[in-house]
Amino acid sequence: MKMENRNITFPETITILNGVNVPNVTIDDIQAILNMRDAWKYLIKTIDEEINLKYILKLNEYIAPNESLEWGVLRTGHVGISGTNYRPAIPDIYIIENELKTLLDHNITITEKAIVSFLWIARTQLCWDGNKRTGLVLANKFLIQHGCGILIIKDSNVLDFSRLLTKFYDTNDESAIKKFLYENAIFGIDKA
């Protein structure tokens, strides 16, 4: 949740997930935590399902309820991304499905495919809101399904991550953020 600039500690998150109210945590932040819990439950339940646009939109349906005009659908209007001048195009279903097919068919490692899918969803802004979280959960589907670890943005890396993500938005050059994510955000595997 730190990736989304939500100032919630791990103990507060555990308390919320255990059904206990936490003082000074907004209802929106509590709902976002519960939404991520539900998205992860869906991911685990559907770990072997095919990845396609319908699946990605279903993840967003769990991740972003009540955060925007609509959730679980391709956005139909313009959005901005704070901190950057980059403005993503309104998604065209045919272009998006073609880009997704190219990504899925690309002959790269599962870890790279996970990172690229995360970055693609974040930059394309497929949905009205929750795109980074949707991309993160999708990336973890790739990794978990193939026993390649898990992608997590640690609290200590949030500032560097945000700086590199903004640079990626502006330039569409993914090299620096891909390297950063591979070296600092993939856990549970021996990277030697």
SSE layout and pairing:
Blueprint: H1 10-17, H2 27-45, H3 53-63, H4 93-105, H5 110-124, H6 131-145, E1 150-151, H7 158-171, H8 175-184, E2 186-187
Antiparallel strand pairs: 1-2
Helix pairs in contact: 2-3, 2-6, 3-6, 5-6, 7-8
Which structural traits does this protein have?
192 residues, mainly alpha, Fic-like fold, two-stranded antiparallel sheet, 2 strands, globular
Descriptive report:
The chain has 192 residues and is mainly alpha-helical. It has one domain: Fido-like domain (Fic-like fold), CATH 1.10.3290. Helices cover 55% and strands 2% of the residues. The chain has helices at residues 10-17, 27-45, 53-63, 93-105, 110-124, 131-145, 158-171, 175-184, and strands at residues 150-151, 186-187. It is globular and about 45 Å long.
